[in-house]
Design a protein that fits this description.
331 residues; alpha/beta; 3-stranded parallel beta sheet; binds S-adenosylmethionine; binds iron/sulfur cluster; binds FE2/S2 (inorganic) cluster
Length: 331
């Protein structure tokens, strides 16, 4: 498939976008079929010790009301999600030290009593933590590399280390997780060349899932006056990722729908095969404000389930009833 020069050329040329999206759609259909996998997302804590310059949850942001959802309430959401037909739960949070190894292990074990696959997305932890979570039953882990441009990574992530992020991805692979990564598109100073490198990086590390989202500036962050990332460029990066990694799982991200009211459907028609609706109650949704104008903040789990099902069916696709592992042949 495409080499670095070709990827750069495609990303820079907007005259052949329809061709690109159609090709990615065909490759998606030929390799992972028409089923869309739904993942029930629980954003269980917006408390974060990090200071990523783009993110509304960053610890220096004193404007947001912080919350934590504890085990029993998490289990209520899981129960409800299972009743709504979800076969995967995604637990996501800021880097919240309250959730120690022991606390996470307890939560994971309680969730795995249900008939669901479990994805964690709780940031950088030690090899020992990842091992304990895996032994407790976690199946998958999402940790975006955000950008493979090391200089830019350094500027955007005070007190964080690109090599540690890489170490996390390698540890997760070693431990047998299905590993998800991804990048932000449209970050200040990000180049097209570095986006091509991001796509090649996903291939090089053998990602099982890749989430691509446009950067959306948050008013209470140092990047508040920067330009919003381009929806079309994010879609192109996603489509190229599908072309280079034909059989992985690719979500139609919430950030895409935030920038375009039909964003998730367009993504599903340009390479994506996963959607991650929120399954927590309305009260927390607005508080998990990683960027402004997030979708579904006034909705509830039932409404989102019905809404997304209608959208998926309207384009002739079906909702999967299995766990949606990335390589079902090998499971
Ligand atoms: N704390 C964990 C981590 O960083 O891996 C998981 C939660 S974090 C909120 C999930 C993702 O949100 C990040 O990987 C990042 O790509 C995305 N994100 C944060 N701020 C954003 C923004 N302003 N616009 C778009 N996406 C953003
Ligand atoms: Fe914290 Fe994740 Fe936001 Fe960074 S992106 S500030 S680690 S929640
Ligand atoms: Fe939440 Fe459409 S997915 S209202």
């Amino acid at each position: 498939m495409f080499n670095r020069e070709e990827i750069i050329k495609i990303l820079k040329d907007d005259t052949k976008n329809d061709w690109l999206f159609n090709l990615a759609d065909k490759i998606r259909k030929d390799n992972v079929g028409d089923e869309v996998h739904l993942r029930g997302l629980i954003e269980f804590s917006n408390i974060c010790k990090c200071s990523c310059k783009y993110c509304g949850l960053r610890s220096p942001n004193k404007e947001i009301k912080r919350y934590r959802i504890l085990k029993d309430e998490i289990i209520e959401y899981v129960k409800n999600a299972v009743n709504l037909g979800y076969k995967t739960i995604v637990l996501q949070s800021g880097e919240d030290e309250y959730f120690t190894t022991e606390k996470m292990v307890e939560i994971i074990k309680a969730i795995k009593k249900f008939d669901v696959a479990l994805t964690l997305s709780i940031g950088e932890r030690s090899f020992e933590d990842y091992k304990a979570f895996k032994q407790a039953g976690a199946d998958r882990y999402l940790i975006r590399i955000e950008t493979t441009d090391k200089e830019l990574y350094k500027k955007l992530h005070p007190n964080m280390d690109f090599n540690n992020r890489l170490r996390c991805l390698q540890d997760l692979k070693t431990l047998g997780y299905e590993v998800g990564t991804g990048c932000l598109v449209g970050l200040p100073e990000q180049t097209i060349e570095s986006l091509a490198d991001d796509i090649l990086f996903f291939k090089e590390i053998g990602a099982d899932m890749v989430g691509i989202g446009p950067f959306i500036p948050h008013p209470n962050t140092p990047l508040k006056d920067e330009k919003t990332g381009s929806f079309t460029l994010a879609l192109k990066v996603m489509a190229l990722t599908r072309i280079l990694l034909p059989d992985i799982n690719i979500p139609a991200t919430t950030a895409m729908e935030t920038l375009n009211p039909n964003g998730r459907i367009l993504a599903l028609q340009s390479g994506a095969n996963v959607v991650m609706p929120n399954v927590t109650s309305t009260e927390y949704r607005a508080k998990y404000e990683i960027y402004p104008n997030k979708i579904c903040i006034n909705d509830n789990p039932d409404k989102c389930r019905g809404c997304i099902e209608g959208k998926i069916k309207s384009i002739g696709r079906t909702i999967s009833t299995d766990y949606g592992f990335s390589h079902p042949k090998n499971k």
